[in-house]
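We modelled each protein-ligand pair independently. The example shown here corresponds to the zinc ion entry; the chain sequence is given first, followed by the ligand as SMILES.
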Amino acid sequence: MGMLKFKAAQIFDGHRLWENKVLITQADGTIEAIVEEAAAGESVRHVEGILMPGLVNCHCHLELSHLKDVIAPHTGLIEFLCSVVTKRNFPAELIQEKIKEAEQEMAQNGIVAVGDIGNTADTAAVKASSSICWQNFVEVLSFTDEKAADAIIHYQSELNQLKQSLSNSSLPHRSNLVPHAPYSVSPETFRRLNEATQEQVISIHNQEHPAENELYQQGGGDYLRLFKIFGMDRSPFPVTGLSSLRSILPYFDRGQTILLVHNTCSTQEEIEWANEYANKKGIRLQFCLCINANLYIENKIPPVGMLYRSGSPVVIGTDSYSSNWQLSIASEIKTLRRHAPEVPLETILHWATLQGARALQWDNRLGSFEKGKKPGLTSLDPEAGTSQRIPLSLASIS
Ligand SMILES: [Zn+2]
């Protein structure tokens, strides 16, 4: 009855690895069952590597794809940010071409959903004909309270363009405003964003560099170099005497799911505090790791083992082509395994699939091989750090 059957050395179902099993789907990829190999019958297609649900990339900046190989590795974050904000004037056609290439790369390597940061609507046309589910995070930068109202109006218009372009798609894309980082969003802007994002999935870059804490603890530090580019001689932010995370998380209390991205300098005590705060306030936190980007920019690794041991929900992102060699969750998996060998492979695969789908609130259709879901099929070689989307059409050959 048009069923498709797949076997592999191992099948990962979103939770755990299985051997000697066969995955059965309907012709359109809707999951039917996982059965014993002996009970699968004929016309079973063999897949190389680990057969698993489509991968979820929780943090990307598709619109920066033209910055591939433009900023050298290991410059340090502050120098990197200064480069990103000053390297402008790329031709619009080149920007579109690189966005398209990056979208195709992700689709081909089996990524089925992306949490994608943008300051513009440059990606709208490519996303409108994409097979990937896009959670668009339209990122607000607004250094001072005086600019808060205008900034929200400006980014809301980018957001409306994205929404409009994607409104005819059959995929459940979503678009909403998010804060960029503790070092680029003023208190009034944070308060307005809290009101504007009730019950939504949002994201914020968190503690990517130690100077972020210094900014809130003493009002000084390396970020002053970035502010100079924007014409500010002093930090525009309140000195709270607290870390950046403790200073900004309390702005949020409207039932949001918040992806905290990077967490490179976050301590165990802070993670515990943040999880407790979130519980108390009815918000949900997801800790997003972008380990290749951390290696690219700062040559640092995030606290992977600590997050794992604390039982915190972890998801994975590639970040952008301005700070990565490829947009591949498989490559992130390989690097995570090398730097955090204490974390079981099953756990990392779970982060890359079902946990990512939960974070983006698409676990009703993506992230695991459960009957009725249509999560996409991917083959993964975790040693090589490569993955591929498995096309369904080839599979219908008996
Ligand atoms: Zn980022």
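The pocket of zinc ion is lined by residues 59, 61, 117, 205, 261, 319 (CB under 6 Å).
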